[in-house]
Amino acid sequence: MNKTVIIVLIFVLWIASAFLPLQQPQLPPKTTTAPLQADIWVDSMYNSMSDDERLGQLFMIRAHSDKGLDHINEVKRQIQQYHIGGLCFFQGGPIRQALLINQYQALSKTPLLVSMDAEWGLGMRLRDSTISYPKQMMLGAIEDDQLLFAYVLLIH
Questions:
Q1: What mean pLDDT do residues 10-26 have?
Q2: Does position 56 have pLDDT exceeding 90, yes or no?
Q3: pTM score of the predicted model
Q4: Average pLDDT over the chain, rounded to whole?
Q5: Which CA distances in Å does 139 have to 24, 66, 125, 144, 151?
Q6: 142 in helix, strand or coil?
Q7: Is 14 exposed, middle or buried (0-12, 13-18, 19+ CB in 10 A)?
Q8: How far is CA 148 from the centre of its chain?
Q9: Which residues lie closer than 8 Å to 64 by C-beta, 6 or more apart?
């Protein structure tokens, strides 16, 4: 065979292999057939919800603990009216935030998923009472490994 034909065949086989289904890994067999308590609870909650409540669980709204009563009342209204599934906290203080989370959880039929937009640490959002550590870009520029290990020990 000609070298060009062999190269074309190899290329065609290589391209075709991208469209072959990947072999699925085998899952280990279940050790028990009894449903877990968590599964039972989730199923019972899901089955008790209306379509609107199920839809609301897909949404996470913005929350602050430093924006005052109007903002707090609006978050409460949305939790109750739209059956919101979660909150993402931004600026505020940790004690105010904890108190608000408790109030919001009490209003929700299902437990809220609570998160925080804090990709460079708590100091990004809870400025009034937490420490702001260096950002990851700064930490990545440090060449002294011992200094980085000391930093990790300090923050943990």
A1: 65
A2: yes
A3: 0.67
A4: 85
A5: 39, 30, 20, 10, 9
A6: coil
A7: exposed
A8: 27
A9: 71, 89, 90, 91, 92
